[in-house]
Design a protein that fits this description.
two-stranded parallel ribbon; 16% strand; 172 residues; 7 helices; 4-stranded antiparallel beta sheet; alpha+beta
């Protein structure tokens, strides 16, 4: 488990997730693979989604930047002079950007929830707390956080539309 309810200021143990990933990934094979590998992360200062080339530097840092939760952890992943958090905050499934930038012939999407499943309905107090945290980071992030389910639904439609043009695999 990566959650510790006894640390409300830092209840999500991102270091535990990092250790798990390091133990499961063959970093050498990833670096030597011909396939491009990008992770979507949210730039905290700009509030925009960025695609990070996982093979361009520290693989683990880029994957962790894409995975760092917005609420429940008191730090971010810093790469160079930029700070990042979970990519799904600003772009739940950045398929349009991927297609526009790379014109791929095949796409594999790795999700951390079942395909099509939105965030569970949060109690109002928790949703409000998340919006406050987002406003502290960047006011743009607050609206991304508030509209996540509708942004995700629009992203699913984009994936289904693109699947008419190229093969798309989904692991969830």
């Amino acid at each position: 488990s990566c959650v510790n309810p006894y640390r409300p200021w830092n209840f999500y143990d991102i270091k535990g997730v990092e250790t798990f990933i390091q133990g499961k990934l063959n970093l050498g094979k990833m670096m030597n693979s011909r396939a491009l590998l990008y992770a979507s992360a949210t730039n905290i200062e700009s509030g925009q989604s960025e695609l990070l080339d996982v093979k361009d530097g520290n693989i683990i840092a880029r994957i962790m930047a894409s995975s760092t939760p917005a609420v429940g952890w008191n730090s971010f992943v810093q790469i160079g002079n930029k700070k990042y958090m979970d990519g799904e905050i600003s772009s739940p499934l950045p398929i349009r950007e991927v297609y526009r930038l790379f014109l791929p012939t095949h796409v594999l999407i790795i999700l951390n929830r079942p395909f099509g499943q939105t965030h569970p309905s949060l109690p109002p107090w928790l949703k409000n707390l998340g919006e406050i945290f987002m406003k502290l980071y960047n006011p743009t992030l607050s609206s991304c956080y508030s509209n996540w389910n509708s942004n995700y639904a629009a992203s699913l439609i984009a994936v289904e539309s693109l699947a008419q043009k190229i093969p798309i695999g989904v692991i969830s």
